[in-house]
Amino acid sequence: QKEVEQNSGPLSVPEGAIASLNCTYSDRGSQSFFWYRQYSGKSPELIMSIYSNGDKEDGRFTAQLNKASQYVSLLIRDSQPSDSATYLCAVNIFQGAQKLVFGQGTRLTINP
Amino acid sequence: DARVTQTPRHKVTEMGQEVTMRCQPILGHNTVFWYRQTMMQGLELLAYFRNRAPLDDSGMPKDRFSAEMPDATLATLKIQPSEPRDSAVYFCASGLKWTGNTEAFFGQGTRLTVV
Questions:
Q1: Percentage of residues of chain A with pLDDT beyond 70
Q2: Averaged pLDDT for residues A63-76
């Protein structure tokens, strides 16, 4: 089982709709969870961090964490074409030392 | 503005040559990560440092790769000898560990092509 798993997509969503991105992780002891956005040919950009169970909202973005189910999600409301990118889930996993492990990423396309 | 700086941005080299990639972390950050990104493998953690000390380099092929932090403002990743399969984008990221959490901020990457 991979340490961090995401559906690679591609995920296609119409403009103005809600895009839902999902991530599961294997280490029950993980405490820190992150969502990064990566445009083609660019570096990953941190967009959300979440550390506690529940929802965390920042503008059009909402991160949701369920540690019991080992599940993290990112919702993008009122999707815009500029949201088209690959979204990477990252989790701090303890293996001898804490390390930041990334999923494969989900490619999201917002259709005008 | 504060950002992670990587050099060079692009590197083309012949198989067998030594490659050195450099990273200047954000001032004040105490954690530095090296990642490699390919289409097939995604983002793989190669090594990381906290307060200049190596904490984990289990993701790095030890026979040809080495990572160091000679001082707080410079991290290096070397490949010797380089091979075509090393072709990838190498990212450095830095972060500040606090209360057990570390948010990582990425540099622009070094795109390496080994021919």
A1: 100
A2: 97
